[in-house]
């Protein structure tokens, strides 16, 4: 077990604000111009930025670093988060659909985290799964632009689903901040 004083020193690539992930001018999440108009566009913008943040937190790490667990007994890792969010994206489509539920991507409960092993093939597959599931959920929701519409067997409001998506990514980006800082000392924003 690593001792507390064996932890990496905190660092940032940012030069303007040293506690930020990237300088404001270099941050791909920053855009020029006005913020989006309307509730749906605003929710989609936040979701896009949190998705990008998760990827940024994982950039430049080896499979071993991506699969590094947080603290016992937790099974959480950056790779596990990528796999988990792919699984969650698939499940959100089950909320929208009146059909039989889609099967889990990784099998049994917690397999998204338990199967996050330090192998390049697992890392590559996780990113493919995440991109595919995000695109499929986005496409399914594109047919429901009315945030007040109720969808699926349980009649969930599209607004509730969109807010839940933003919340899920935001929460896990917070986890990713701490995981990344433990791996190499890089601070997040």
Automatic annotation (TrEMBL):
Coiled coil: none annotated. SUPFAM superfamilies: DinB/YfiT-like putative metalloenzymes. Signal peptide: none annotated. Gene3D superfamilies: dinb family like domain. Residues 1-39 are annotated as: Disordered. InterPro entries: DinB/YfiT-like (IPR034660), MST-like (IPR007061). This is DinB family protein. It comes from Streptomyces caeni.
């Amino acid at each position: 077990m690593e001792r507390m004083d064996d932890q990496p020193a905190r660092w940032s690539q940012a030069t303007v604000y040293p506690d930020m992930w990237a300088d404001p001018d270099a941050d791909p999440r920053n855009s020029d111009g006005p913020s989006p108009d309307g509730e749906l566009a605003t929710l989609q913008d936040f979701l896009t930025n949190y998705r990008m943040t998760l990827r940024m937190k994982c950039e430049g790490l080896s499979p071993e670093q991506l699969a590094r667990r947080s603290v016992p007994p937790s099974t959480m890792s950056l790779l596990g988060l990528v796999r988990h969010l792919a699984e969650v994206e698939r499940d959100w489509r089950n909320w929208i659909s009146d059909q039989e539920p889609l099967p889990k991507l990784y099998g049994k409960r917690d397999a998204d985290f338990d199967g996050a092993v330090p192998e390049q093939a697992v890392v590559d597959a996780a990113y493919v799964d995440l991109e595919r599931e995000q695109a499929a959920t986005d496409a399914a929701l594109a047919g429901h632009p009315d945030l007040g519409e109720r969808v699926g067997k349980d009649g969930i409001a599209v607004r509730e689903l969109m807010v839940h998506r933003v919340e899920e990514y935001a929460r896990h980006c917070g986890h990713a901040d701490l995981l990344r800082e433990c791996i190499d000392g890089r601070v997040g924003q």
